[in-house]
Amino acid sequence: MKNIISKIILSGLVVGTVGLASAQKIDAKAKKILDDVTANYNSKKNSYFKFSFGSGVNGQVSKTEPGIYYAAGDKYKLKIMGTEQIFDGNKIYNINTEDMEVTVAKPNGSAAMFSPINYLTTYRKDYNVTYNGKKTVDGVSADFIKLTPVKDNGLEAVYIFVNSAKKQMLKLEQHGNNKDIAIIAIKEYKENQNLDPNMFIFDKNKFKNYIITEL
What we know:
It is a single chain. By secondary structure, this protein is an alpha+beta fold. Helices cover 15% and strands 48% of the residues. It contains three helices and 14 strands. It has a twelve-stranded mixed beta sheet. A two-stranded antiparallel sheet has the order 1-8. A hairpin with a 5-residue loop joins strand 10 and strand 11. The longest helix has 15 residues, at 28-42. The chain is globular and about 50 Å long. The relative contact order is 0.23. The model is unreliable at 1-22 (pLDDT under 50). This is Outer membrane lipoprotein carrier protein LolA. InterPro entries: LolA/LolB/LppX, OM_lipoprot_carrier_LolA-like. It holds the Pfam family LolA. Keywords: Lipoprotein, Signal.
């Protein structure tokens, strides 16, 4: 389980270093949808997502876990699988309650940190983008967009499903070359809430009995 978390959630959804942008093919309709969603999220003071995270192999989801995610600007807090991650705008704090461990690290420039809107920005240089029509997701008519990496980054494709009327992402599927699959399905969305001012601050005093490792 730790490997699943570190590979897909806590270390981010991996994106590779690519070559010339001219090698890309980006469908104009898909680009507008993704840019509209990005602009909508960025216009909010903060956002909250309740989601389910599914993972498995051979294209089949074998395990599903609930999670919650808060974001304000570039700061966020994620809780899933008994693990909490805080990004305070400078460092990432991974808190494992089961093992009573905290790891602290600077963001790695070669990987994008977890965010429901991660691919809405990284597609601009890393992926070919196509519009694949409409699909129904949990009873909602969604625009289906497919991302394929310009260069090999371990992924076969990423599927994004968008409620264009509300300019919100409904679901994201990540398919690996090794047939691993990861799915984030957003179940609840709230915005512009009155959040605790300490929401994105790591308080070391609360973890005195934990092993804290700074990478």
